[in-house]
Structures are given as C-alpha cells and as structure tokens.
C-alpha cells in the first residue's frame, strides 16, 4: 500500500503542477482583465503542438521545444488581446466570456484542419520506465516533474520579488487603487497576457509529456480543472492558484489510493473536483485566499 501511496503522491505533484501553473495565468487574467478565458485550455493545445513541431519536425530537444511553445502562445495571447478582447471590452462580462468560448472552438478546429486528428507524441520513448525507489516514471513524466520543480518556484519568485510580478498582484487585488498609485493598467494587462500565455504553453507541453500522446482535444478536459483551481484559490489570487492547483492535483490522485476503502475509480477523479468546487462555492465563494468580488 505504501508504494502505491508514494506513486500517487508523485502523480499528484505532476498533475498539480500543471493545474497550478496554468491556473496562475487564468486567475490573473480574470483578476486584471475581468475575462473568464474559456480558450485557456486551447492555448495549452497550441503550445503542445508548436513544441511538437519543433521537437519532432525540426529535431530540437524538449527544452528548446517547450520554450518555443511558450513564446508562440504568449505572442498569440497578446494578438488576441489587441485584436479581440480589448476592442470588445465594453460589451460586458457574459459577452466576452462567450467570445472566448468561440475563440476556443476556432483554435481547436483550425488545429484539426491544418494538423489533422492524428494522435501525436514527442520524441521520447513511450516504453522506457525509470524506477526510483517505489516510484515508476515514464520519460515524459520525468521531464514534466523536473520542469515543475524548476518553474513552480520561479513563478512564485517572479510574483513575489520582481517589480512586474508585484504590480500584477496589485492590479489583480484592486484595480482602481493600483491605478491611483500610478500603475499603468494597460501595460500590466499586456504583461499578464504574455505571462498567462507562456504558462499555458508550458502547461500544454507538460500535459502532452505526462499523457504520452495527445490530439487537438488536449486542452478540453483540463479547462474545468483550471477554473476549479481559480475558484478554489480565490479569483485573482496568484498564490491561491498555485496552492489550489497542487492541492487539487494531490487530492484527485490520492483519492484512488486503495487504502481509502478501496479508492475512487480513476474515471471519477473529475467528479471529485466538481464536488470540491460545489462545496467551495456554497461555503466560501470567494475561495480560500480571495476576497468577495462584484463582477
């Protein structure tokens, strides 16, 4: 039983790191731009496919491929900001949310059109297994957890120590007060789209590595979990999203531990996330680290 617990703990850290990193970007976009970006999951898919092309077609290593995926999604997010979300800013929260949902469908169908529906995989062995104590990892999972161990602390450091990171948190916490304090809201909006896009691109690469294979629907399933992370941590709270992402990932994986009355079936892990979301909305709608907000 203990070896299964350790394996699930590592799996939970991998899942949690993906949710945490993508959730940080989504919550800052909502906190600063007041946009529930339903295309965020498809941003992950764009990053995964760009990295795939760089890794497989151009024979570059995964570090270069992941960096290219991050840059591509960051650039795409800024283009979408200037061409779509900013011009339509005054149309209201619901209208912008529907527009973002339309953008997600457009992205997904363009990938199907130009990339096909074939299942893709990065240039890593899918049959090799690394055994470290009780833990068994595929090469993709090993890369994903190595990335998480580096990027998650860097993200926390960026938000806590850098001038841009502090200003992002200030604007997300109180937009009006930040403007009075002299922070350029429009510039910070561009920075947050770059930041959120880059993390979404990296999250897509990590998810593709963790799963082993992926297709144009890669970002569909994680979208609900990302927004659960945002709500659980507190809308606009970057640190809350980091904590909630890891907590949710661990909870979902550890819920299948057989020592817990046989464990929950793996197909019911999203149901557990849905139950957590309902409980949070009922008893603490502002999230664990957030404040009550008026949209």
Short description:
71% of the residues lie in helices and 2% in strands. The protein has 295 residues and is mostly helical.
Account of the 3D structure:
- This protein is mainly α.
- 71% of the residues lie in helices and 2% in strands.
- It has a two-stranded antiparallel ribbon.
- Helix 1 (2-33) packs antiparallel against helix 10 (238-254) and helix 9 (220-233) packs parallel to helix 11.
- The radius of gyration is 19 Å and the shape is globular.
- It starts with a helix and ends in a 12-residue tail after the last helix.
Low-confidence segments, given as residue ranges, are none
Shape: globular
State the share of residues found in helices, binned by percent.
over 70%
Distance between the termini: 47 Å
Strand-helix topology:
Layout: H1 2-33, H2 40-57, H3 62-85, H4 93-115, E1 130-132, E2 135-137, H5 139-161, H6 163-173, H7 175-180, H8 185-211, H9 220-233, H10 238-254, H11 269-283
Antiparallel strand pairs: 1-2
Helix pairs in contact: 1-5, 1-6, 1-8, 1-9, 1-10, 2-3, 2-4, 2-8, 3-8, 5-6, 5-8, 6-8, 9-10, 9-11, 10-11
Identify the notable features of this structure and list them briefly.
295 residues; two-stranded antiparallel ribbon; globular
């Amino acid at each position: 039983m203990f070896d299964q617990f350790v394996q699930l703990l590592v799996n939970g850290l991998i899942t949690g790191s993906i949710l945490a990193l993508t959730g940080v970007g989504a919550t800052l976009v909502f906190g600063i731009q007041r946009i529930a970006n339903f295309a965020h999951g498809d941003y992950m898919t764009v990053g995964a496919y760009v990295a795939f092309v760089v890794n497989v077609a151009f024979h570059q290593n995964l570090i270069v491929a992941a960096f290219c995926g991050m840059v591509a999604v960051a650039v795409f997010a800024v283009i979408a900001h200037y061409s779509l979300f900013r011009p339509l800013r005054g149309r209201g929260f619901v209208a912008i949310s529907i527009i973002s949902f339309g953008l997600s469908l457009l992205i997904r169908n363009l990938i199907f059109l130009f990339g096909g529906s074939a299942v893709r995989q990065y240039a890593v062995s899918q049959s090799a297994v690394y055994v470290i104590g009780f833990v068994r990892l595929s090469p993709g999972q090993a890369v994903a957890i190595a990335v998480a161990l580096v990027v998650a602390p860097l993200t926390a450091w960026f938000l806590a120590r850098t001038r841009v990171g502090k200003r992002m948190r200030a604007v997300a916490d109180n937009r009006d007060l930040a403007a009075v304090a002299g922070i350029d809201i429009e510039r910070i909006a561009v920075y947050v789209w770059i930041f959120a896009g880059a993390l979404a691109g990296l999250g897509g690469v990590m998810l593709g590595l963790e799963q082993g294979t992926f297709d144009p629907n890669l970002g569909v399933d994680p979208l609900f979990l990302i927004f659960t992370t945002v709500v659980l941590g507190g809308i606009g709270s970057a640190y809350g999203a980091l904590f909630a992402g890891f907590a949710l990932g661990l909870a979902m994986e550890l819920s299948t531990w057989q020592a817990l009355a046989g464990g929950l079936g793996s197909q019911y892990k999203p149901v557990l996330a849905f139950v957590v979301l309902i409980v949070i909305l009922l008893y603490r709608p502002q999230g664990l680290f957030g404040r009550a907000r008026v949209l």
